[in-house]
């Protein structure tokens, strides 16, 4: 079956023809771990997860690698601003290493709650400095770099295709990226491959290199690590749309200069999650996390369901009202499925033609540039179809859920009304115990009420605190 996606590089919808038949090499840009991932970031990871699972549904074997940016790269994509990791460390009075590991773990936990499958390779930038140095040396040997003021720069003039991904002129790119003027750059769009001359006197993450002690620029990690794990011809590379004009443009420039041929065949970009008053960003502090959603009575899978209702290529406006609507619709869907599960007859036989014809319809939708909205329509048809017996319905629902990953057939009877899981409740109980120890009665009460709002009652006794669903 044809699997088509919108390719940012060509501006067209194209059929995916992998370099190696039947195998897709997928690279997705991972998080910068200096703070929690916000739900906007997570929208992008959900989109990438659905992409991977759709490819797998169709029958491709997917080899997926994702980086963890744990090197303190700078606030702006264009080599300017503050060091993000150092900002996190001073905010929380921890070392940059502690910050990196803490938020990496928090990110992976969020992904788990959202049923985002862990990539085949998750690689940390700090553990691949040698690979980056070798990559920069190769670029240096091939004449693509220059050194100024102690830093190694990539010279974009040596790469005539520089503007091909964003499809903008250099002047438009310049205007869009609001670059801070760096007098050492020959061209304002040149970018740093290796810094030895940090403007921060107390830079902690530093490594020896042929150019002196220092640290890598941000973009080089994705090129070096993706090639290490996936080879120098990659099928699909993804990220959010913000990465098109700088990060991915720079990744292409350095990678294709190093290998001397086309590097990635299909570039896919997820549009942003926005508030009605503007964009959600990690650095502006005003962002929502998965735990915040849980605190407000939503399960992580309510959020996943919410994201799946809109096309990845369209901006999605977030509000608690629209999330509530999604939660209601998800709950209606689950109760219909519950009815089917309960009335399933163990003697029902599966008719292969019935199954295959629905699988084909479903596959057709997901392989049409991830038309997940239509895939949900197929799911509704299955639920309503009187020609199908309940065993066939359950089989198909479980089959489609390999892509949706919404735990559609997991019905937890004991705590049916709960939208949260045990880990979340136990974490809150622990936090409440700590608050009580510190005589912070306001927070302790607040936690009791947060759980009450979700129909969970706390029972204190000499043995400790237990909970029950109301
Ligand atoms: P970062 O940790 O900032 O490198 O971002 C991680 C991923 O989230 C990248 O793929 C970004 O493009 C993406 N991203 C950042 N902000 C948003 C947003 N508001 N909505 C959707 N994706 C986003
Ligand atoms: Zn990247």
From TrEMBL:
Signal peptide: none
Localization annotation: Cytoplasm
UniProt motif 'KMSKS' region: location: 279-283
Assigned EC number: 6.1.1.16
Matches recorded under Pfam families: tRNA-synt_1e (PF01406)
Keywords: Aminoacyl-tRNA synthetase, ATP-binding, Cytoplasm, Ligase, Metal-binding, Nucleotide-binding, Protein biosynthesis, Zinc
Family: Belongs to the class-I aminoacyl-tRNA synthetase family.
Protein name: Cysteine--tRNA ligase
Lineage, uppermost ranks: Bacteria, Bacillati, Bacillota, Clostridia, Eubacteriales
């Amino acid at each position: 079956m044809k699997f088509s996606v919108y390719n940012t590089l060509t501006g067209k919808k194209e059929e995916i023809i992998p370099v190696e038949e039947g195998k897709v090499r997928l690279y997705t840009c991972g998080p910068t771990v200096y703070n929690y991932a916000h739900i906007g970031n997570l929208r992008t990871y959900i989109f990438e997860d659905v992409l991977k699972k759709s490819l797998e549904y169709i029958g491709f074997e997917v080899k997926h690698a994702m980086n963890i940016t744990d090197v303190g790269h700078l606030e702006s994509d264009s080599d300017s601003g503050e060091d993000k990791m150092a900002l996190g460390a001073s905010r929380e009075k921890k070392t940059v290493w502690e910050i990196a590991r803490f938020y990496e773990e928090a990110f992976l936990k969020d992904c788990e709650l959202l049923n985002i499958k862990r990539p085949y390779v998750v690689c940390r930038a700090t553990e691949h400095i040698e690979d980056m140095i070798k990559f920069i040396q190769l670029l240096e040997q091939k004449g693509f770099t220059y050194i100024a003021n102690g830093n190694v720069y990539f010279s974009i003039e040596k790469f005539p295709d520089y503007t091909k991904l964003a499809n903008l002129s250099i002047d438009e790119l310049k205007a869009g990226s609001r670059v801070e003027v760096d007098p050492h750059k020959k061209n304002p769009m040149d970018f740093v491959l290796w810094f030895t001359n940090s403007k921060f006197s107390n830079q902690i993450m530093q490594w020896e290199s042929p150019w002196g002690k220092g640290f890598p620029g941000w973009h080089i990690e994705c090129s070096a690590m993706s090639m290490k794990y996936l080879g120098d011809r990659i099928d699909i590379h993804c990220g959010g749309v913000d990465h098109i004009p700088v990060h991915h443009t720079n990744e292409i420039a350095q990678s294709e200069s190093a290998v001397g041929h086309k590097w990635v065949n299909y570039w896919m970009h997820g549009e942003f999650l926005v508030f009605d008053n503007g964009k959600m960003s990690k650095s502006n502090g005003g962002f929502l996390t998965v735990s915040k959603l849980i605190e407000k009575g939503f399960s992580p899978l309510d959020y996943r369901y919410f994201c799946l209702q809109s096309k990845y290529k369209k901006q999605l406006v977030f509000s608690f009202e629209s999330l509530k609507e999604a939660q209601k619709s998800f709950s209606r869907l689950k109760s219909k499925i519950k009815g089917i599960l309960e009335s399933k007859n163990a003697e029902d036989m599966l008719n292969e033609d019935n199954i295959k014809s629905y699988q084909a319809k479903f596959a057709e939708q997901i392989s049409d540039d991830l038309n997940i909205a239509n895939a949900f329509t197929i799911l509704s048809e299955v639920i309503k179809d009187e020609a199908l017996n309940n065993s066939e319905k359950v089989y198909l629902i479980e089959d489609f859920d390999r892509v949706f990953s919404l735990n559609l057939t997991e019905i937890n009877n004991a705590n049916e009304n709960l939208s949260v899981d045990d880990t979340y409740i136990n974490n809150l109980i622990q936090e409440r115990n700590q608050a009580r120890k510190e005589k912070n009665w306001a927070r302790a009460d607040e936690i009791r009420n947060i759980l009450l709002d979700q129909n969970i009652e706390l029972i204190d006794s000499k043995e400790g605190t237990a909970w029950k669903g109301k």
